[in-house]
């Protein structure tokens, strides 16, 4: 028979007395057809296993049967061949080879598949537990899994599976590790019979210790046949498998069921939502079985052009691994027009339930009817008793295919553990549910008991096993349970029942014992001592609500360890779960402690007292005894919490007062003196710093005291580094302090640094080293130096010190920011510049439309074409006139910039500032349309630009006539401007020269006074203060990435780009059509201009005008996005290329088109509507070809990638803002992979081929290395590795607080659903578009009112004349000035008022998404604030106020504390100050385009810490102050400088680098004397 098991089809359905499993088992036993697995395999020539690689032919049923029939597992000469029931560990990645290996091994041996990603320790533990005789795996796993060590430890063979490179997929050869040349390939072993154990699996362990579940061949055949029967699987069915083959569901449903039914299965390496659609279409899949998350990902990644019901053959979809939400089931059915089947099964029984194949979602939320074993709902407290129909209780199963018991020994002769079964054979599944009148099962909850510690799921049974194993001499039994925690939600508590006669273990002792058995993240946080475990009447331990019954409340990390020890009564077994259990904190008797210590041999005298936290402290005299030995001796006498810590041994005896009482004050002095005498001078200094930071007792800190154990944390570590630097002059990186945290090791670092780099200077009293690092100059090559000569303002060097930094510089005669002249001049751009520009566009529109009147015959098409022509002419005219006017304004007001240093608020500053605002507001206009026009624009402003220069459109240039670009240089998205702020309220203008063929990469800042040498390469992520980068970094410059040839670009790409843009504006054209349809613009009774104005002012036209603005703001970006994705899909996706291979013209064409149709601007506009942080962004990136996991937190600024199809992002990844993703450079294209739970912070640059590991943190400004893998769990800042991740628990759940709150709705507040977020975004965008259209509408109404007065003198302005355009422009401009100013002020007030209403005043602290609604309120305010940034052109309403007192007033209204004469963003571009009410600025502070961010978001753990910037400080463009950092008076951060969390910039010190490093070098006396010359010269320009 070609399909041997076809005789089992249409077996009698289950009845109250006979289940489907029983019926199938009976037919098999009655028949003589099935005795082995080989008897179940079809022998047809039809496909059985497909590869996802379409180039590989499928493996047929006949080939599988033939392979298995002749299969023999090789072995080394020293081992005997393996036979039936010998255990074989299978450690293979999912795929055709894995499938065939499972079938072959299960036919002859006991197959034990495990996750191929397991660790070496896990594999060894499982193999030892199962007594594995061989391990089957791949060669590339040898080192990772420690296979040679495993072979030696267990004496087993390791067999490699070598996939064949040609022929049918799945076929493989085998080789034995270390003996490939001598391996023995014997004859096939004896086939397994029905009672032999063909498969063995472990349970997950979440409900207890991992248990071993054996499967006989009969149970596998029956379970598989149940699946085939209940799902009506046929030989024509094709299964698409993306599930792993080490779980029973994947093995039975996705492998055995397709094979036994004569069908086939597509064996994929893992889940890929985009590959699903391709494979299901190419290989004609008819069904698949997957988890709910996979269903959801499949739906969200469906290609727009594909109609599943038309293009696919999928007839059935089955659900696994969790409940199927009814809404998701409906979505699946609507999309696929297929049968949607929930299902239910578990490791101990597969399957249990599924609906019939005719099911049509008639019972939403069900798991189906029994489809294998008997099913019963029973009393959870006593499964011997069945519950009445409809009752909710424990779901229990009995009979095949349910397992027969847990394995206790690998020896098949040892009986199975059946203690989990009732006397009638019922097994409790651990789930709760009920069965309705139609027999449908509904699962209502889980009884599994887990601890959720900060998002990490901890099995209490794992903790219990570790405690009992590690502390077996002291602990009789234990019970782990969850206790509420103020930050982590839950922490781990344990009930300890001590061994009789043994003292109680203390928390510290227990944690020491657990070091080798349990990861620190799973250590108990509190102990409750009981005489026995709390149990129910059946004797089962009770952990449910135990913490609440004990009244433990919410614990916190600040609670001392002693106060985390409790003792409680044992509750009665019959007591209710709501009944409290008497519990209290432990106490101890000081006299008992005293007596115990005195009983130790060698102890002469003792004085014991209680510390403030309640713990004991002891001083004693003893001869020749070490405190550690004494502690060990007393551990057998006292409970752990009563052992004094610390124990102080006094060499001279215990001093006592005349009364006989111990003199503790004298003893403290002696201990302090002893500790001090044992420490070096540096150690004493470090000790004093730590004591001051942590507020601990100085006398009790010795050389071995650890900063973290004393109460330090990572934020205080930055302050520690600062204080050490301040007191000693030695800079120790924070990363180094992480690994050297004791007083002695820190002191050794200080001493080593001072020996290596002796410092000049004098030591003041108290040992403090006096240094003044303020007087340093930065050479043109970016290196710090001290020069004995005075540098003139026109020189080639930029000063890093503020002229007149000392008292003389802060002359009281200097103009302040509140001077009337300053306030007047700096109000001009806000009042006039943008309103005049906007008025120009509208005036030209009205006048051109009036001029076209004589040419129009009033047909509809003439009306609409004349209107469109007028709009185009007006916009083009404005884009030509505005930038040219700004260029002329620049030359008239300031002429050529004069290099030098000037005081802010001086006349020269006001001239510079207003010119900068004019250039910013006018924009580049028409000059931005082509690179050659941009070069012309820069040259018109005075820049000297040579031949062949390439400057990226995103590059930010300024002070153009101070810039020189030599031939062939290339500039990416960098900052190159001749302006920078200085300390004490000064700014510098300096020349910059970029040498011939120099390369400036992205995120690179070039400071004034810099001369970049010929051919030098800077960046990515650098500044001119850094050394030049390697020449190979030129490959990362995007303007140098090749483009398609001329013909493809101009005759293919640009027509497509134009077509996409045109089609996206069709909705706007429709509104314009509605505006002009059946209306007459020109009235015969009025002249042309009057008609145009009356037509515009008509209420109907006003409505359509507002509607057109809304459509352009909402619909056009989304259409551009959808059309861009469609075009990308039509042209196909790019692939990774080999290094230095030449890309094809087609690949270049794709990339060029995508860079325009899916540009950064289009993506940002779309995400602003759809939502920036949410799943919809993942959906869009998937549509663009990227592989994106679940619950990704996307940045508000978005990310841009030339080839998103080469981007692979795992689950729960968190992105910071403004990161750069390079999948393509000049070398080639390569995939970028970001692992589950990784954190990509702000300004990170990811280069091609980079693989970011699981839970890896790429900190602020991290620059990756091409084709490099970053280790799982490691932490990086800049280019420095702070933590290699070796001590992290990498197996914990990766879900972030954001994921819990937003996607799992696990938060104590109302979490906005996505629909509400979308509605808010749409409303805000529509409101903004309407709001900012008011100025044009108002101008039309005013002009119409003038006309309605019908006054002869007034209406003459409409008559044609040579001066009419000027009058019309004047009137419209006046309206725009008045209305836009009012709108601008209202918009600013809107931002301020909504901030206080929505957020209120911020406070320092942690604000996790799933604990506090702060993040949600902050996001809401950011969206509402968009109104203020959609008007006034580039920079919004705040743009014209940067660098003025008005901006300071705005920030003060937002809650910032700002001193006098602070220049905030005088360069014209507002930096980031996201939490102004947590920022304190002193007097004369200057901030350019920098980031002052008080929040820190580490993998979604959101926290706020205040920031303080002292008097006279400066932060230049690109610098960043992280949460909790601060700057002392007169300090400065240069371009591209990061001051890390908790760090402090020393007074008067200049810093550069990422992270910041002080620029070394003492003041030069001559420079100090001559500095006022610069001040005097700047004062000459003051008035």
From TrEMBL:
Sequence ranges of Polar residues compositional bias: 8-20
Gene3D superfamilies xref list: 3.30.300.30, ACP-like, Hexapeptide repeat proteins, N-terminal domain of ligase-like
InterPro entries linked: ACP-like_sf, AMP-bd_C_sf, AMP-dep_synth/lig_dom, ANL_N_sf, PKS_PP-bd, PP-bd_ACP, Trimer_LpxA-like_sf
Superkingdom, taxonomy of origin: Eukaryota
Gene Ontology molecular function, alphabetical: medium-chain fatty acid-CoA ligase activity; phosphopantetheine binding
GO BP, sorted A to Z: fatty acid metabolic process
Keyword Transmembrane carried by entry: yes
Keywords of the record: Membrane, Phosphopantetheine, Phosphoprotein, Transmembrane, Transmembrane helix
Segments crossing the lipid bilayer: 1051-1075, 1309-1334, 1367-1393
Residue intervals of the Carrier domain: 677-754
Region (Disordered): 1-24
Protein name according to UniProt: Peroxisomal-coenzyme a synthetase
Organism: Favolaschia claudopus
């Amino acid at each position: 028979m070609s399909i041997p098991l076809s005789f089992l089809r249409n077996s009698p359905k289950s009845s109250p007395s006979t289940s489907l499993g029983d019926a199938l088992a009976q037919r098999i036993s009655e028949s003589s057809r099935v005795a082995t697995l080989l008897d179940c395999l079809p022998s047809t020539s039809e496909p059985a296993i497909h590869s996802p690689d379409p180039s590989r032919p499928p493996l047929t049923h006949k080939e599988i049967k033939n392979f298995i029939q002749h299969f023999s597992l090789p072995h080394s000469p020293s081992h005997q061949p393996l036979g039936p029931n010998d255990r074989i560990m299978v450690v293979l990645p999912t795929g055709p080879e894995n499938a065939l290996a499972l079938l072959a091994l299960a036919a002859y041996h006991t197959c034990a598949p495990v996750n191929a990603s397991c660790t070496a320790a896990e594999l060894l533990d499982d193999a030892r537990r199962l007594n594995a005789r061989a391990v089957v795996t791949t060669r590339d796993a040898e080192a990772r899994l420690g296979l040679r060590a495993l072979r030696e430890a267990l004496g087993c063979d390791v067999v490699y599976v070598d996939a064949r490179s040609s022929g049918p997929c799945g076929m493989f050869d085998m080789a034995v590790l270390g003996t490939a040349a001598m391996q023995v390939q014997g004859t096939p072993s004896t086939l397994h019979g029905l009672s032999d154990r063909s498969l063995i699996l472990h349970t997950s362990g979440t409900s207890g210790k991992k248990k071993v579940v054996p499967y006989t061949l009969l149970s596998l055949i029956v379970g598989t046949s149940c699946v085939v029967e209940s799902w009506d699987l046929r030989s024509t069915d094709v299964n698409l498998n993306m599930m792993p083959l080490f779980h029973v569901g994947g093995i039975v449903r996705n492998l055995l069921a397709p094979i036994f039914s004569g069908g086939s299965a597509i064996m994929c390496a893992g889940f890929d939502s985009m590959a699903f659609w391709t494979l299901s279409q190419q290989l004609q899949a008819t069904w698949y079985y997957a988890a709910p998350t996979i269903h959801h990902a499949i739906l969200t990644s469906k290609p727009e052009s594909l109609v599943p019901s038309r293009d696919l053959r999928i007839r059935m979809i089955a659900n696994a691994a969790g409940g199927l939400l009814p809404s998701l089931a409906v979505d699946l059915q609507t999309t696929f027009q297929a049968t949607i089947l929930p299902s239910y099964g578990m490791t101990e029984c597969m399957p249990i339930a599924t609906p019939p194949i005719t099911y049509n979602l008639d019972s939403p939320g069900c798991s189906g009817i029994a489809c294998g074993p008997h099913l019963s709902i029973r009393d959870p407290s006593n499964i011997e008793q069945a519950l009445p129909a409809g009752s909710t209780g424990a779901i229990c199963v009995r009979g095949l295919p349910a397992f027969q018991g847990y394995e206790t020994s690998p020896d098949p002769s040892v009986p199975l553990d059946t203690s989990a079964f009732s006397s009638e054979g019922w097994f409790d599944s651990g789930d709760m549910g009920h069965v309705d009148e139609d027999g449908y099962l509904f699962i209502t909850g889980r009884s599994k008991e887990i601890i959720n510690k900060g998002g990490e799921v901890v099995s209490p049974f794992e903790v219990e096993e570790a405690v009992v194993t590690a502390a077996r001499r002291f602990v009789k039994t234990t019970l782990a349970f969850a206790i509420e925690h103020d930050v982590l939600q839950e922490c781990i508590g344990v009930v300890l029942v001590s061994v009789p006669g043994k003292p109680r273990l203390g928390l510290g002792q227990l944690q020491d014992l657990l070091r080798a058995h349990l990861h620190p993240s799973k250590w108990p946080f509190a102990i409750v001592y009981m005489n026995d475990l709390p149990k129910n009447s059946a004797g089962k331990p009770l952990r449910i609500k135990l913490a609440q019954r004990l009244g433990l409340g919410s614990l916190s990390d600040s609670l001392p360890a002693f106060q985390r020890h409790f003792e409680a009564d044992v509750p009665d077994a019959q007591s209710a779960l709501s009944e409290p259990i008497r519990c209290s904190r432990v106490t101890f008797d000081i006299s008992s402690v005293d007596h115990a210590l005195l009983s130790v041999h060698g102890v002469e005298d003792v004085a014991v007292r209680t510390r403030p936290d309640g713990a004991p402290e002891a001083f004693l005299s003893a001869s020749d005894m070490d405190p550690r030995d004494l502690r060990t001796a007393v551990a057998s006498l006292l409970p752990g919490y009563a052992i004094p810590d610390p124990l102080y041994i006094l060499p001279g005896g215990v001093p006592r007062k005349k009364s006989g009482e111990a003199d503790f004050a004298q003893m403290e002095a002696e201990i302090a003196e002893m500790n001090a005498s044992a420490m070096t001078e540096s150690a004493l200094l470090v000790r004093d710093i730590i004591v001051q930071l942590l507020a601990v007792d100085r006398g009790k800190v010795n050389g071995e005291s650890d900063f973290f154990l004393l109460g330090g944390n990572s934020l205080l570590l930055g302050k520690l580094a600062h204080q050490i630097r301040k007191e000693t002059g030695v800079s120790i990186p924070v990363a180094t302090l992480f690994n050297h945290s004791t007083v002695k090791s820190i002191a050794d670092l200080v001493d080593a640094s001072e020996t290596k780099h002796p410092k000049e200077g004098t030591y003041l009293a108290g040992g403090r080293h006096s240094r003044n690092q303020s007087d340093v100059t930065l050479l043109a090559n970016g290196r710090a130096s001290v020069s004995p000569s005075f540098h003139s303002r026109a020189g080639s060097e930029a000063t890093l010190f503020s002229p007149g930094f000392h008292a003389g510089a802060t002359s009281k005669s200097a103009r302040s920011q509140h001077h009337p002249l300053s306030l007047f001049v700096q109000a001009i751009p806000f009042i006039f510049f943008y309103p005049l520009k906007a008025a120009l566009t509208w005036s030209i529109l009205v006048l051109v439309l009036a001029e076209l009147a004589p040419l129009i015959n009033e047909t509809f098409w003439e009306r609409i074409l004349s209107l469109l022509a007028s709009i185009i002419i007006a916009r083009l005219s404005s884009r030509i006139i505005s930038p040219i006017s700004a260029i002329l304004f620049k030359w008239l007001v300031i002429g050529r910039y004069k290099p030098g240093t000037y005081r802010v608020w001086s006349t020269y500053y006001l001239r510079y500032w207003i010119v900068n605002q004019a250039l910013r507001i006018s924009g580049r206009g028409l000059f931005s349309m082509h690179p050659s026009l941009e070069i012309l624009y820069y040259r018109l402003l005075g820049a000297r630009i040579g031949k062949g220069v390439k400057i990226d459109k995103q590059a930010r240039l300024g002070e153009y006539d101070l810039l020189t670009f030599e031939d062939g240089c290339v500039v990416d998205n960098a900052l190159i401007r001749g302006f920078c702020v200085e300390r004490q309220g000064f700014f510098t203008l300096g020349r910059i020269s970029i040498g011939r063929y120099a390369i400036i990469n992205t995120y690179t800042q070039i400071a004034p006074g810099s001369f970049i040498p010929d051919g030098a390469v800077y960046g990515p992520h650098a500044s001119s203060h850094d050394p030049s980068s390697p020449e190979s970094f030129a490959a990362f410059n995007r303007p140098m990435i090749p483009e398609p040839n001329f013909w493809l670009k101009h005759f293919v790409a640009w027509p497509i780009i134009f077509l996409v843009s045109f089609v996206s504006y069709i909705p706007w054209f429709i509104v314009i059509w509605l505006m002009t349809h059946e209306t007459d613009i020109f009235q015969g009774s009025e002249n042309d201009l009057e008609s145009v104005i009356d037509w515009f002012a008509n209420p109907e036209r006003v409505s359509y005008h507002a509607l057109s603005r809304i459509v352009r703001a909402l619909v056009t970006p989304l259409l551009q996005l959808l059309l861009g994705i469609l075009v990308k899909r039509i042209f196909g996706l790019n692939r990774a290329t080999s290094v230095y291979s030449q890309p094809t013209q087609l690949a270049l064409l794709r990339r060029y088109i995508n860079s325009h149709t899916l540009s950064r601007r289009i993506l940002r506009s779309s995400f602003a509507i759809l939502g920036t942080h949410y799943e919809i962004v993942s959906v869009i990136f998937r549509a663009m070809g990227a592989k994106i996991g679940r619950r990704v937190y996307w940045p508000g600024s978005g990310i841009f990638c030339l080839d998103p199809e080469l981007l692979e992002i795992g689950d729960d990844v968190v992105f910071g803002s403004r990161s750069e993703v390079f999948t393509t450079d000049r070398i080639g294209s390569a995939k970028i992979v970001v692992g589950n739970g990784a954190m990509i912070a702000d300004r990170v640059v990811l280069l091609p081929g980079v693989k970011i590991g699981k839970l890896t943190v790429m900190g602020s400004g991290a620059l990756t290395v091409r084709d490099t893998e970053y280790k799982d769990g490691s932490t990086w800042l800049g280019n420095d590795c702070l933590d290699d991740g070796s001590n992290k628990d990498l197996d914990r759940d990766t879900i972030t607080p954001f994921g819990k709150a937003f996607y799992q709705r696990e938060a104590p507040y109302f979490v906005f659903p996505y629909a509400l977020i979308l509605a808010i975004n749409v409303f805000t965008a529509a409101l903004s578009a309407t709001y900012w259209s008011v100025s044009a509408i108002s101008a039309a109404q005013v002009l119409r009112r003038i006309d309605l007065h019908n006054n002869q003198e007034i209406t003459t302005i409409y008559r044609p004349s040579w001066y009419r355009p000027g009058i019309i422009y004047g009137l419209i401009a006046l309206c725009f000035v008045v209305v836009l100013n009012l709108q601008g002020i209202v918009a600013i007030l809107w931002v301020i008022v909504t901030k206080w209403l929505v957020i209120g005043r911020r406070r320092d602290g942690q604000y996790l998404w799933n604990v506090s609604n702060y993040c949600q309120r902050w996001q809401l305010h950011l969206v509402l604030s968009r109104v203020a940034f959609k008007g006034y052109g580039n920079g919004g309403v705040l743009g014209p106020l940067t660098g003025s007192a008005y901006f300071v007033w705005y920030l003060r209204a937002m809650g910032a504390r700002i001193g006098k004469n602070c220049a905030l963003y005088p360069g014209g571009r507002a930096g980031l100050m996201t939490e102004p009410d947590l920022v304190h600025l002193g007097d004369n502070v200057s901030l350019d385009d920098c980031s002052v961010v008080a929040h820190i978001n580490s993998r979604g753990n959101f926290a706020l810490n205040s920031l303080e910037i002292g008097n006279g400080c400066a932060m230049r463009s690109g610098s960043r102050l992280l949460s909790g950092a601060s700057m002392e008076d007169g300090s400065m951060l240069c371009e591209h400088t990061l001051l890390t969390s908790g760090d402090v910039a020393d007074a008067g010190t200049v810093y550069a680098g990422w992270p910041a490093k002080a620029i070394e070098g003492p003041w030069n006396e001559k420079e100090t004397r001559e500095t006022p010359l610069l001040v005097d010269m700047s004062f000459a320009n003051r008035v």
